[in-house]
Amino acid sequence: MSKGEWLRPRDDEAGSRVTNIELFFDLVFVFAVTQLSHHLLGALTLGGAAETLLLMMAVWWVWIYTSWVTNALDPDRTPVRLLLLALMLAGLVLSTSLPHAFAESGLIFAVTYAAMQVGRSVFVTASRRGGQPERYLNMQRITLWLAFSALFWIAGGIAEGGTRIALWWLATAIEYVSPAIGFRVPGLGRSYVQDWDVEGGHMAERCSLFVLIALGESIVVTGTTFGEVAWEWDVVLAFAVAFIGSVAFWWIYFDRAVERGAARIREDEAPGRLARMAYTYLHLPIVAGVIVGAVSDDLVLAHPHEPADAATIAVGLGGPALYVAGNLLFKWTIAGRPPLSHLIGLALFACTLPFAHRLSLLEMAMAATAGLLVVAAWETIVLSRGPLPEHRDRDVA
Fold first, then answer.
1. Domain span at residue 315?
2. CA distance 223 to 243
3. Pick from 127, 123, 163: nearest CA to 146
4. 324, 293 in Cβ contact below 8 A?
5. By the 8 A CB rule, do 193 and 79 touch?
6. Which residues on neighbouring strands pair with residue 7, listed in sequence order?
7. What is the C-alpha to C-alpha distance for residues 232 and 235, in angstroms, rounded to an integer?
8. Distance between CA atoms of 379 and 257, rounded to whole angstroms?
9. Of 191, 221, 256, at which residue does a domain stop?
10. pLDDT score, position 394
């Protein structure tokens, strides 16, 4: 089999189909999202939030880069399938190291992460050899950038304390900035999004599936915590509020945004630009909002009448606000204008903030959920007045 046959099919239904091996690969990230929410729950401080953010950015980046690879290469080909299985094994090690990444597991986390990023890119570079010169050159640039950031990941894993954190933030910054500047390398030039060959439907579906992973973690947290506490009226009410909040999260993203985003990226003359901004970057706050919201649900179910303090307000209002803000930016990029419903929702969260310290955790959760319902209902009513853009007759979510 030639390396050219490893490429994902284009211009047919199979080209945009998410394969079973990709779904199997995603199972590791169910575990990773659980580890992230538990890490934040165990360290509700500014330092703990910064650590969780850094780890989440790393987890998202290794997942989204792999999604770009399976957008280009066919996961049903044996070499590509073996690559995903190897990444899956490494991802399991990575996820296991997350709780102690800033302690004794730092070097394991760093080496595993760097090996996943660099190893995958080396594989794809080899698969591009002998093919289209510009895409082969682009993969060389990407590999060099990831190898450069790997130095700081591993150095941070060896270091301790504040030095580790500083080095890892530097490594994260390198990786997040590099796509925005076209992976520019002296002597090798840079790439341009117009040249990125992206199967838009596949990219949209992959990212929507990761949002589902995060929402699934929220449901698991709600059910697990509810099963561990006494079922008194206030706990039952907190359970109902948490469930309704999860439904509102789902509705805001999946009711119309998935189909509109998929249609928009398929029709765009430069789908690489939308894939980079709308899906690679702007899905990060969406996923982060779900994870923070899951932490809030856990706290409310365990202590519904406890007064809200700075930390619980940050997760109780910050999670929904972050989620709505992420959706606002995503839909703004897709539609060319910000949805008014989301601006109103953010205003409602802001109006709740000044007196949130007077509320119990349950009351604050009820206020946040009410804001989410306003966003979901408003958008649904407005969008129901016009038809959805044309899209393939298939279940994107």
1. 200-383
2. 9
3. 123
4. no
5. no
6. 73
7. 5
8. 10
9. 191
10. 35
